[in-house]
Design a protein that fits this description.
This protein is an alpha/beta fold. The protein has a single domain, classed as Decaprenyl diphosphate synthase-like (Undecaprenyl pyrophosphate synthetase), CATH 3.40.1180. Helices cover 37% and strands 15% of the residues. It contains 6 helices and 6 strands. It has a 6-stranded parallel sheet, with helices on both faces. The longest helix has 24 residues. Farnesyl diphosphate (FPP) binds next to α1, α2, β2 and α3.
Length: 246
């Protein structure tokens, strides 16, 4: 039931306008090959480009990917440092292609804990792609849904204390304006690779009415063809948003 508040893609009728992906399984993919976990993350990063480039073919206007969670700091120092270095390299290496492909990049998550060099690369990439409209790529980096809601609530509370917001006016339209995702539509389809059926603190508020696909494929093996199949089968879902079909 597409409606004004839940439009589907303008490019391909019935396609998900916004797809969010939990890119899981890099570690297992590497272990299966007798390689260190970071080898899997590097393979996973290559997969990101193919999926971003495929978005217009399947009518996907917004793609949000979970690159590093607020909980991922609990991994070994070697893995965390390797991932941070991978993010820096990815941004440096991919900027030109992202610009050429018309991709607008945004980052969500708390930047405070990230190193200055990475923060600068993120800010620069956001600025350099801000006029692009072909694909809206959002990278969740040091992101956690609960952390995001807590930070949003803190900002909202400051506005109340400053007299900018009346507590009686706070409703479910108010909080999203304070979320990191405030300029994005809600995700229509959330995909998690690697056979785990959980959402791991990803887009908790925004996914209230998303459709979910939990697939066995490990992220480095996720292909454009499989992405296309999931987008196509989304068109067959009966989305009612709590209403009854008449
Ligand atoms: C989860 O797999 C994956 C991550 C925590 C990192 C995701 C990062 C990438 C796909 C690479 C780069 C991304 C960008 C944007 C450049 P896991 O390590 O938990 O796998 P496992 O469950 O098999 O151990």
């Amino acid at each position: 039931m597409p409606s004004a508040s839940h439009p589907t893609s303008e490019l391909v009728p019935g396609a998900p306008r916004h797809v969010a992906i939990i890119m899981d399984g890099n570690g297992r993919w590497a272990t299966q090959r007798g390689r260190p976990r970071l080898f899997g993350h590097h393979a996973g990063a290559k997969r990101v480009r193919e999926i971003v480039e495929a978005c217009p073919d399947f009518g996907v206007e917004y793609l949000t990917i979970f690159a590093f969670s607020t909980e991922n700091w609990k991994r070994t120092q070697v893995e965390v440092a390797g991932l941070m270095s991978l993010f820096r390299r990815y941004i440096t290496k991919e900027t030109r292609a992202l610009k050429a492909e018309g991709v607008r990049v945004r980052f969500i998550g708390d930047r405070v804990k990230l190193d200055d060099k990475l923060i600068k690369l993120m800010n620069d990439l956001e600025q350099e792609t801000e006029l692009n409209t072909r694909v809206h790529l959002t990278i969740a980096l040091n992101y956690g849904g609960r952390d995001e809601v807590a930070r949003a609530t803190q900002r909202l509370a400051h506005d109340v204390a400053a007299g900018l917001l009346d507590p009686d006016d706070v409703d479910e339209e108010t909080l999203p304006r304070y979320l990191d995702t405030h300029v994005l539509p809600d995700p229509d389809l959330v995909i998690r690779t690697s056979g785990e059926a959980r959402i791991s603190n990803f887009l908790l508020w925004q996914s209230a009415y998303a459709e979910y696909e939990f697939i066995d494929t490990l992220w480095p093996d996720f292909s454009k063809a499989e992405f296309g199949e999931l987008c196509a089968s989304f068109g067959c879902r009966d989305r009612r948003f709590g209403a009854v079909k008449t």
